[in-house]
Amino acid sequence: MKIIIDFIVLIMLYIFIFYKKWKKKGKDILLINTTMYIYLSFVLYFTLMPIITSLPFIFNHPYNLMNLIPFVDLINGRGDFIKQIILNIIMTIPFGFLFPLSNKSNFIKTICYTILLSLIIELLQPLLNGFRSSDITDIITNTMGGVIGYIMYLIFKPITIKILNI
Q1: Start-to-end Cα distance in the chain
Q2: How do the domains of the chain map onto residue ranges?
Q3: Which residue positions in the chain have pLDDT lower than 50?
């Protein structure tokens, strides 16, 4: 139920702010930006939600500091580290593909924004939920996903440009 509030806010933001703005720029821009918006909404769902109902309680639990030892779970054989690494890579492949489509950015800018997205998620997770932690490995693997996504963008760029007329 708590997550529904977040989705209602996301839908309202889209309808009343972003849809109007993007529609004026053309159908292709609307399609690309809407796809990015839906993708980012799902990233929020899997990483941070519920957000709005968690805000009043962000200071009611200890903040777990970020683990700064890369791949410590892999090294120590703890948990389902392989699954986590793969899921973190997969999660940001669409970002690496869609981000340059949505604003015609280059590799460096795309990777910087991928790192920023990942860093924001990792820093907010323990704030919103005392049972969540943040890890440098997630930032590294999310960045790897962004790189893979950007490579896919480069490979499919001629086809994408032809289809979308951008």
Answers
A1: 40
A2: 2-164
A3: none
